[in-house]
Specification:
Helix content: 40-55%
Strand order of the largest sheet: 2-9-8-7-6-3-4-5
Order of helices and strands: HHHEHHHEHEHEEHEHEEEHHHEEHEEEH
Strand content: 5-15%
Shape: globular
Structural class: alpha/beta
Largest sheet: 8 strands, mixed
Radius of gyration: 21 Å
Distance between the termini: 47 Å
C-alpha cells in the first residue's frame, strides 16, 4: 500500500519532481532559534537596517499615502518608484532607463524566476559561473534546464573557457538561452569581473546569439568605494537583462527588487507576474520610494559599506589565525561572504554535521557548482554574526578542520 507521500509523488509535474530544496534555506530553518553561530545565510546585519530613519518614513506613508499604499497596485510596480530606479541607474552607473524598461518584483529572485519562466523550455542550456549563486541553479533546474558551469578566477568568468564552450555548443547546433553572471562580487566567490571581460562577454553573447542575465545585488557594496560599470552599460542591442534589489542596501523584509530589460521583455514579465502575484506589495514599494526621495539611501549605503568592511577584516584575520595549513580564501572586496578553499582531503559537506554539533553553521561549497566539484570549499557569511561570533566561530571551524587534516 502506498504511503500518502508516494501517492502525491505519482501526481507531481516533471518540474515539481525536479525541484530541490536550497541548502541555505534549509540551514536557516535548522539554526533558527538555536544557539548556533551561523555563517550560513546571506543575511544583513540587523544593525545595518536604517530603522530610525525608516520609522518616520513609514509614518509619512501612512499619513499621506495610505489610500494608495494599502491598495492593490500596478503589476509593473509603483510608477514613482520605477521612475526613480530608472533615473538611479543613470545617475549611479550611466545606464539611464525608461520607466517602461523597469518591472518591480518581490526581490530580484522573483525577476530571475520570471525570466526563466519566459525563456526556458525543458532541455535548454544555461551557462553560469562555477561556482555561482545557488538560487539561480535551483531556479533554472526547476524549469528542467541544463545548467553548465564556466570556470572563474579572481577577475570573474573565464572568457576563454566561455568562448570554447559556446563554440562547442554551436558545433552541436545548440545555443544557450542565457549566460547568467554575478559580475560584481560574485556569490559565493567574491570575484569582480574586469572591465575587459565585461566587454568581451557582450561581444560573445552577440556573436553566438544569446542573452545575458546580470544579477547585481552587491554592486554598491564594494569596500574601496569604486563603482564597476555594469555589463549592461556596454549593451547596444538589448541583450542584457539586469536584476537589482533593495534587500542588501535597505532591508530584505521589504522584498523589493527590479528587472531592467528591453520594453517588450519587461511587458512580457508583467504579464507573467499578473498570473503569479498580481503585484509586489504596494506598501513596501511606497516605503522604498520615500527612502530614495528623502535621500536616505546613499548615505545609508556608505554606512553599510563601513560596517561590512570592518567585519570583513575581522573575518580575514580570523581565517589567517585559525584555518589549517594549505587553506586559502579570496580577498574580500565587498559584499557579505568569504569563500574558503580547504586542503583537498577535506569534505565540507561531510563535516557540516560535526561543525553544527560544535555550534557553528556554514554552507558547503559543492552546492554552488552546477556540474560538481568544490567538495573542499565553504561559504562563510560575515555580515550577520557579531565580530566576536566571527572570531569564535572561525576558531571553532579552524580547530575542527585542522584536527580532520591531521587525522
Amino acid at each position: 500500500m502506498n504511503t500518502v507521500t508516494d501517492t502525491y509523488q505519482t501526481h507531481y509535474s516533471r518540474s515539481a519532481l525536479n525541484m530541490r530544496a536550497s541548502d541555505i534555506r534549509e540551514l536557516l530553518k535548522y539554526t533558527e532559534g538555536r544557539d548556533v553561530i551561523s555563517f550560513g545565510g546571506g543575511m544583513p546585519d540587523p544593525a545595518a537596517f536604517p530603522s530610525g530613519k525608516i520609522a518616520p518614513i513609514i509614518e509619512h506613508v501612512m499619513s499621506s499615502h495610505a489610500a494608495d499604499a494599502l491598495q492593490y497596485g500596478c503589476t509593473e510596480g509603483h510608477t514613482k518608484l520605477r521612475r526613480a530606479i530608472a533615473q538611479g541607474m543613470g545617475d549611479l552607473y550611466g545606464v539611464p532607463q525608461d520607466t517602461s524598461n523597469i518591472v518591480v518584483t518581490s526581490g530580484s529572485q522573483q525577476a530571475l524566476y520570471f525570466l526563466a519562466k519566459l525563456f526556458l523550455d525543458p532541455g535548454d542550456i544555461v551557462l553560469t559561473e562555477s561556482p555561482t549563486f545557488l538560487g539561480a541553479i535551483l531556479t533554472f533546474r526547476s524549469f528542467l534546464a541544463e545548467v553548465q558551469g564556466i570556470s572563474i578566477d579572481e577577475y570573474g568568468m573565464d572568457m576563454t573557457d566561455l568562448e570554447d564552450r559556446l563554440r562547442d555548443l554551436a558545433r552541436q547546433r545548440k545555443r544557450p538561452k542565457f549566460i547568467y553572471t554575478v559580475p560584481t562580487i560574485g556569490n559565493p566567490s567574491g570575484a569582480v569581473m574586469s572591465v575587459e571581460r565585461r566587454k568581451r562577454l557582450i561581444e560573445l553573447a552577440a556573436e553566438y546569439d544569446t542573452y545575458i542575465v546580470e544579477d547585481d545585488p552587491y554592486g554598491l557594496l564594494l569596500f574601496d568605494g569604486t563603482r564597476m560599470p555594469l555589463v549592461k552599460s556596454f549593451d547596444d542591442c538589448g541583450s542584457v537583462f539586469y536584476l537589482g534589489t533593495f534587500s542588501k542596501i535597505i532591508a530584505p523584509g521589504f522584498r523589493v527588487g527590479w528587472l531592467a530589460a528591453p520594453e517588450h521583455v519587461a511587458a512580457k514579465v508583467a504579464v507573467a507576474k499578473q498570473a503569479e502575484d498580481l503585484c509586489t506589495g504596494t506598501f513596501a514599494q511606497h516605503c522604498v520610494f520615500e527612502v530614495m526621495r528623502h535621500n536616505v539611501l546613499l548615505p545609508h549605503i556608505a554606512d553599510i559599506v563601513s560596517l561590512y568592511r570592518r567585519k570583513a577584516g575581522v573575518m580575514q584575520e580570523a581565517l589567517k589565525t585559525s584555518m589549517p595549513e594549505g587553506s586559502s580564501w579570496t580577498n574580500i572586496a565587498g559584499g557579505l561572504f568569504a569563500w574558503v578553499t580547504l586542503p583537498e582531503s577535506l569534505d565540507t559537506r561531510a563535516m557540516l554535521p560535526r561543525a553544527m554539533e560544535r555550534g557553528v553553521a556554514y554552507v558547503a561549497g559543492d552546492a554552488f557548482f552546477p556540474n560538481g566539484g568544490g567538495r573542499n570549499t565553504m561559504r562563510l557569511n560575515f555580515s550577520f554574526p557579531s565580530e566576536q561570533n566571527i572570531i569564535d566561530g572561525v576558531s571553532t571551524l579552524g580547530a575542527l578542520m585542522t584536527d580532520a587534516v591531521v587525522r
